[in-house]
Amino acid sequence: MSDLEIAGAWVVDPTTGREGPADLAVEDGVLARLDWHEPTGATVGTGIVVAPGLVDLHAHFREPGFEDAETVATGQLAAGHGGFSTVCLMPNTDPPVDEAPVLATVLGRAFESGSPVRVLAWGAATRGRAGAELASLGELADGGALGFSDDGNPIESGVLFRNALVYAAMLGRILVDHPEDRALTKGAEANEGLVATVLGLRGWPAAGEEAAVARDLAILADVVAADAPGARLHLTHLSTAGSIELVRRAKGARLPVTCDVTPHHMALTDEWLAGARRFAWGSGRGNPWEDGAIVALPFATSLRVNPPLRTRSDALALLAGLRDGTVDAIATDHAPHTQVDKEVEFGFAATGISGMETALGLALAAVEAGQLALVRAVEALTTGPARVLGDVPMAATGRPVAPGLVVGQAADLVVLDRADGWEVSARSLRSLGKNSPLLGMRLPGRVLATVAGGRLAWLDDEA
Amino acid sequence: MTIELEPTASPTTMPQAAAREADASRAPTADAWKHRHVLDVDDFSTDEIELAMRTTAEMKEILARPIAKVPTLRGRSVTILFYEASTRTRVSFEVAAKNLSADVVNIAAQSSSVSKGESLIDTVRTIEALGADMIVMRHAVSGAPYLAAEHFSGNVLNGGDGWHAHPTQALLDLFTMRERLPGGSVRGRKVVILGDILHSRVARSNIWALTRSGADLWLCGPATLLRGFERWAGATMPGSARFTVASSIDDALADADVVMALRIQKERQAGGLLPSLREYTARFALTRARLARAKPDALVMHPGPMNEGVEIMPDVATGRQSVITDQVTNGVAVRMALLFLVSGVPLVE
Predict the structure, then answer these.
(1) Do residues B183 and B104 share a domain?
(2) Which of A210, A315, B238, B347 lies in disulfide reach of A242, CB 3.0 to 4.6 Å?
(3) Do B307 and B140 contact (CB within 8 A), yes or no?
């Protein structure tokens, strides 16, 4: 790539926890210089910020099978725009990634696109993601899968879940669960609470997630004690205060569990379904009718997501979990959908938010609101997810995921302007999925450039 | 601003004359009407509710004529688009539109997320291209009329969506109560809605209309069919009175002014929400004995269709206190009023 030289940017390096003004230069794709200024006591970080390239543990690029919603190439473009240099794809394609050749196809597409955004992938845990028998776990691992997940289809059978955990441990891989007790969430449309009651939407109780988290943790404890001390469980897109508390206790008991939350679950609430458009931390008592917060029509299908947007206190519990380290990572659950699947009645709409390009903006909004320190937000988007993956990427692909600003290595970083916002719109989103509830809103932190493995994955037109 | 119509001498005639004679500065005028659509009553101002009530009274006067027809909406086309089976509401809207001389087209549609037939938006666009000025819509999915309204340049009237709202039913219920209650107002009156609240759009729209109007509202039914409403009752809603949620039918009915029973469906038994309809009837059906706990002249209401012998006993449904057939008649008048108000045309006699 062409050289990049930035003087006096606010550099955030989560590997050392250091942040401050510095000069840096990239030459021939390599981070050639990083000169920290003498500390002046000024802690601004409000202008140009440089951080390691972001890592997303959970994204859907829809290829093969749903290329009208997203392709690997368009997903990579969206990743660059969002500041991500590494993404881990979920296997719910058609056909699903339950056999090694499908995995090879997905990884091949990422290579063919020419994008430098690094694509890693999870394999399915069960054949056809149907929850009846194990997928070709060993072959998937040999083909480079990071681990296994039936994301979107929780493994209902406790026995099969246990076996997947044990078998994955044998392969040195991680099991990722989308915790949902389907009996409690059958037909559910919105978080069970005031908003769902008033809008007449079928309630999606917190217990529908927490019961599954509790089961998963109980089985994990058994497995670790009895069969497979190396077992690793990652719980994705936790959305309730109760789930966070369960993980907090499990981590206290030294269970090998990690978890992530999405930007939308930590920043938005179910109030948005009623037509409110304010972030969780600014939502008063959480009753949009009482506070006169309703500014849009109710039932926007861009807000239909699994798990559903929760209450203010849930969102604040996710942020507290991020602050105290209970939550390891912010993962996007980027779920692009076509207009055909979203511009329908609320209860018929596909679940999911196109979130890869707005993740950083929502995290920065939380920083601006004092909910997260800048360095912690960056950590949750870089070294946090990298720690979840651990040495698995090295074992699976021969290359580690190690975000950091290391002089002499291929540059992998994001340059953003915190002083400049950008408007989320169908035009500004590079993903094919325009299903964002943030359309029309301004987010802080314009991404000026994303560099992945020494090559440009994004360069702002105006930069 | 709260406007109460003057009390009437006779409970069976509307305070039409009194309303006309009311101080013009206190009465809401037609420009108080702000809504292009009638999707729910949750965002209706007090003035709009009053205007709807006054206009309904005028429409009821028209209905009392030998030829109950005015040319007000002549040349306007109303499409009645029902995705769910309905007789009462559909026919009521149709009669209302025809009384106003509108042209009426009926569409009984099928909808499913799986079938991927014509989408709701395509259907609405087609109806618009066919010249419809208004759509009256019923749909099994909560919120569907909001989607239609976003994609239709005319007016959308919600004839019931999922569990969410049934605004014309709530307004006809309010009108019927005001017509029959001494004083012509529900303010401070104990109104009990009895039965399957959870699945009821009638209950939800009535909560808005009645709490805005200052009624002492009680919701009563089996605890499994009241889930979530405790939270609503405990929330502060601007301009709305608090309401009470109770599973004790004796507490609910004590000294009630109005008792409205809701239809209970057999599916609730299969869905594990009730042990049996028999048990529901034994504990919650509106019987003569239970009604005796209410005030002697308490009104008995039901939005229909009724399961007589299940949620309401036949002798109560047709008894002295029943205003169920008034609800049906008033339903036509309310729908005429709303079709007229959203149309924006002046009333032509």
Answers:
(1) no
(2) A210
(3) no
